[in-house]
Every structure is written in structure tokens, then in C-alpha cells.
Amino acid sequence: MSRSGQVFLHLGVLILGIIANHSHASVSVVDDAGRTVTLAAPAERIISLSPHVTELLYATGAGEHIVGAVSYSDYPAAAKKLPRVGSYNAFDLESIVALQPDLIVAWQSANPAAALEKLQALSIPVFLSEPRQLEDVASNLERLGKLTAKDTVANAASAAFRHKLLELRSQYSVARTVSVFYQVWHQPLMTVNGEHIISQVIELCGGRNVFASLSILAPKISLEAVLRKDPEVIVAGNSALNHPDWKDDWRRWPALQAVKKNHLFYVNPDILQRHTPRILQGAEVLCEHIEAVRRSGEGLPE
Question: Which of 52, 107, 63, 60 is nearest to 276 (CA)?
């Protein structure tokens, strides 16, 4: 072999070694609880403990590495076929350990803290996801992309999300403020406070969450409290098939502004109550409802 051929051979071996070392290099990110999560190598066996986490992982291109997920992890369609490890608030520790994960992605405010501590005691890395601001969705994509070596796909998804978010902010930044009551559930009556990401969506659309000042993230409230606030709009995290008579419940109170003017709307909770890129689809629907209220002088048809 010629000298130049030997040089190229050695160079090729060196490059392959660098690539191999890089592919197995440790990765480290800070999760939403401010904890540093370090993996010896990018994750290849992931457990998702929330439907929104499952969706985020697929959005980063890491869906093929999910080996277990909780119930209601149903988007995209491929997620429906994942092995189940219980629900977000009652997962099966033995099933999780048996799947030999090298990363668990959990939901900080909803997963049982004691169960998460047991998993961490087994030296299984746990990333806590808790998007509170809309920008946190993009940040979650980027950090999960780093932990799974899917940076290219994750960063592209993050950039697309930020671009759409900027468009919506620009569109509604000078709109008249509209008071909004967001109904998470009807029995018991539940809403969100100002720290919840749904409240951030309401603000994005130029709305004002009438229960923003409450201290609990997703509090139970009384009917009387809603009557006192007298919102211009009532929005339910609902669908036409789930509790279709919810409007009738409110029409028993015709003195309410929202009822009097027929400003009663619903948004599919899958695109508004999950901390994923699809939340901007939900934001578009909500913003259109609120904008229609601004334009309406006499009320809207059903």
C-alpha cells in the first residue's frame, strides 16, 4: 500500500473511532425540576409515565425507543400498541423494572412522588417533565432529543413550534382582553390557575383567566364562584361526544354573560390539555372562539 493510502486508512480508522466514541458518549440535561439527568449513553429503552410525554417522545423521533407507556398514551397511532405499565397515577413498578429501561420520563405534578423515588432508588435515571409555559414545550423537545440522540428531529420540531407560537402572539397581542372561565371537568367543577399552561394559552389569545389568582394548579371550585366572576366566555375541555349536555348545565344560569350571549364553547382536551406541540392546534381553536366573542355584538349561533 502506498504511503498516501496508509494515511487515508489511518485517518478512516481515527474518524470511525471518533464516531463510535461520540455515539456512546454520556449525555446530560437539566429537567423541569432543575435536576441534572445524566445518561452514560443516549437512551434506547424508555418508559413514558404520561400521555403528553409519549407524544413528546414521538415528536422528537424517539418513539421507536419507548418500551412501555401509561394508559391513554394514544397519539400518534403507533403509541396505542405500546406495552402498558399502568396509569399516570398508579403505575406498576414491577412491570417497569422488568422492561429494563435506561430512562424514565415522568410527569412531575401528576405521577406519585413516592413511586418515582423508588425508581430513582434503583438507579434508573428519571427525567421530570412539567411544562408550565408554552416555551417549555419546545425546551422539552430539545432536551428529550439530546437524551435520545435525536437532536436533528427534535430541534426541527422545536423550531417549528416556536415559529407558530410567535405567529399567534403577533396576531393577538393587541386584541381586546376577554374574561374566560376554563372548565377542566364538570363533576366536580374544576378549572386551572394562572401557573397552568392552559392559562398561558388563554393569555396568548388575549383572554384573561378569571381564576388565575388561585394557589392550586387545577383547583376544584364552586358554582357560586363562577357566578361571581361572571366571565364573558365559558370554555370546556370537552368534545361533542363527551358530556354533550354540558351547555345545558350552564343555561340554568341565564344571568351569566357567557350564557346570555351564547358564548359557550368547547375545545378537544387532547389538543389543549396535553403539554405537546399539538397544544398550538388547541390554541388556534380557542383563539378563534375568543376572537368571535370580540366581534360579536348580539351573540353567536350554536
Answer: 52
195 phi-psi bin (left φ>0, alpha ψ -120 to 50, beta other): alpha
Write the DSSP string, 8-69.
HHHHHHHHHHHHHHHHT--EEEE-TTS-EEEESS--SSEEE-SHHHHHHHHHHT-GGGEEEE
Stretches where the chain sits below pLDDT 50 are 3-23, 298-302
Coil, strand or helix: which one is 105?
strand
Q: Rounded to an integer, what distance in angstroms lies between the CA atom of residue 21 and that of residue 223?
A: 61
Domains and CATH numbers, the chain: 27-158 (3.40.50.1980), 175-295 (3.40.50.1980)
What's residue 15's pLDDT?
Answer: 41
Residue 93 CA to residue 116 CA, distance in Å, equals 9
Give the pLDDT score at 237. Answer: 87
Alpha carbon 173 to its chain's center: 23
* Cis peptide bond upstream of 188, omega within 30: yes
Q: Are 262 and 276 in contact (CB under 8 A)?
A: no
